Amino acid sequence: MRTFFLGEVLMRLEAPDHLRFIQTDVFHSRYTGAELNSAVLMHCLGAEELYLISAFPDNALGEAALNTARHWQINTAHCIRKPGRLGVFFLEQGFGMRPSSVIYDRAGSVFAQSRFEDYDFESIFAPGDWLYVSGTMPALSEKMPEFLKKVFSCARRKGCTVCLDLNYRANLWSWEKASAVFTGLLDDVDILLGNAGLARAMFKVKNAELCEKFQLKNAALTCRKEESVDINICSASLYGSDGEVYHSRSFQAAMLDRIGGGDAFGGAIIYALQRNMPGQAAVDFAVAAQILKQTVRGDFGLINHDDIQNFLSGKDISVRR
């Protein structure tokens, strides 16, 4: 089973030690991206045949970003190189009651300027494949929603399962624009991922009615309550086209690095659905992956099966030696 991840890979520049942007004179760099984050999580769980579809600048930074994907055994054969720039975002990690902050610098990146015609999607997709896309992609340019609509239509026609993670980012586009674009895209979506409150507000329908209204196979939605930047209460629900619904337990979780938690959930729920895990097991598995990712510095969910099973079984957390 092949899984394709279409989206932008970015450089993350983080102010260290919870320093504010106006304090720091150093930034720590990593390469990241919602789709790449989910792919790395699936690799850590043991999934194979994971493919990245993206565009990179034809310079050393593009090569470094590509090498990050290759390091985690993500196939980059369908990635392209062009003159231009790599997208960047700056991260200020919050603490206590001070929230984290992100500043995007993605406009005009090589990926944001790429077109449907740059990739041979007709030859890439085949029956039985899965495609995962983050909702940040259509926010990158005025042409991206139409690009993505063509990709989804091609994937469905080729017999792929299409997964869309809402990932709404207010710093990238307006609520009204995002709502209109996402609603239009759902015609060719099989599995919807995202935050429960966001989905309810954006589509103006109860979460339990999403599958019926938009002809989805599944909707997998997370819920997060923030007691502070460092302590969150996390849970999730999985809805099916058969009307079944499964709710995970709520877990109080300490946040070392919240960025990428939703991507870990997305990768884990796709992994679980591909392997036909029972609904309750699937949603518990995915929310555990999300919580455990948030104990890892950086965007990647470097979590394996043992980590998840130990967490869900309530095993003690003493030093293993």
Keywords:
single chain, nine-stranded mixed beta sheet, 24% strand, four-stranded mixed beta sheet, alpha/beta, 321 residues
Mean pLDDT: 95
From the alpha-carbon coordinates, what is the Rg to the nearest angstrom?
Answer: 19 Å
* Uncertain residue segments: none
Question: What proportion strand?
Answer: 15-25%
| Number of separate helices | 10
Q: Termini distance?
A: 37 Å
What spatial form do the alpha-carbon principal axes imply? globular
**Total beta-strand segments:** 15
How would you characterize the largest beta sheet? 9 strands, mixed
Helix content: 25-40%
Structural class call reads: alpha/beta
Topology order in helix (H) and strand (E) letters:
EEEHEEHEEEHEHEHEHHEEEEHHH
Question: What can you tell me about this protein's structure?
Answer:
This protein is α/β, with parallel strands linked by helices. The chain contains 10 helices and 15 strands. It has helices at residues 34-45, 60-71, 121-124, 144-157, 175-185, 196-203, 210-214, 261-274, 279-293, 305-313, and strands spanning 3-6, 10-15, 28-32, 50-53, 55-57, 80-82, 88-92, 101-105, 130-134, 161-165, 191-195, 218-226, 231-240, 245-247, 251-254. The strands form 3 sheets. Strands 1, 4, 9, 10, 11, 12, 13, 14 and 15 form a 9-stranded mixed beta sheet that branches. It has a 4-stranded mixed beta sheet with strand order 3-2-7-8. The longest helix has 15 residues, at 279-293.
